[in-house]
Design goal:
Distance between the termini: 65 Å
Radius of gyration: 26 Å
Oligomer: single chain
Largest sheet: 6 strands, mixed
Structural class: alpha+beta
Number of helices: 4
Helix content: 25-40%
Strand order of the largest sheet: 6-7-9-8-5-10
Order of helices and strands: EHHEEEEHEEEEHE
């Protein structure tokens, strides 16, 4: 004779708080699990290290000209050459190292974007200003006129460090902000949950 489960006891056909001691806890069918406190993602473009090497070479050339120069055409051309090489080298180095990597962090209050390995430039957007969120499947520098921190009147602002998927935020003032980040769909779902949307939408490319 089989034992009948008592009232309130879990049976295999019912959803309980856990399903197996070794598999961890699972929410009931009607429960909505709380989103994690923080979502973090990043994107990297290793190709830009080549441009950084070019910038370092320009900087080294400028230093070499200043230290060991055999120019005979005068001091002014030498100074101009040194300053030009050093300025070009520093500009290329900053422009590439600052945008060879981007880190995105989202919590219950804001989205924060940090560029480069030192976190500069930085952008912070309160989630209270976000009215919609989407993903762009294929973003390229051509869409924004190059790499880095970009602005276009008809598109808004963006941080572009590589080709591929990106997170797109529509703000309450009509502006948009785009950032290339891995797992953009995960970020979209997290932000949509935080601002009370049913779900984001693809923005296209």
């Amino acid at each position: 004779m089989r034992d009948h489960p008592q009232d309130g006891a879990a049976t295999p056909d019912r959803h309980s708080g856990t399903t197996g001691a070794g598999k961890g806890a699972r929410p009931t069918s009607g429960a909505h699990p709380e989103p994690p406190e923080v979502w973090q993602g990043s994107a990297t473009n290793r190709v830009q290290w080549l441009l950084a090497a070019i910038g370092a070479a320009c900087l080294a050339l400028g230093v070499q000209l200043a230290v060991d120069s055999s120019w005979t055409s005068g001091l002014v051309p030498l100074v101009m050459a040194v300053v030009g090489c050093v300025a070009a080298g520093l500009l290329v180095l900053f422009g590439t190292l600052a945008f060879v990597h981007v880190a995105v962090r989202v919590d219950k209050e804001c989205l924060e974007v940090r560029c480069g390995h030192i976190g500069v430039p930085r952008r912070r957007i309160p989630l209270d200003l976000v009215v919609d969120v989407a993903i762009a499947r294929q973003v390229t520098p051509r869409h924004w006129g190059g790499w880095g921190y970009r602005w276009r009147p008809e598109q808004g602002t963006a941080v572009i460090v590589r080709r591929g998927e990106a997170l797109v935020l529509k703000l309450g003032d009509g502006r948009t902000f785009t950032v290339t980040v891995d797992d953009a769909e995960g970020a979209m779902r997290y932000i949509a949950g935080r601002i009370g949307l049913r779900g984001g939408s693809p923005a296209g490319a």
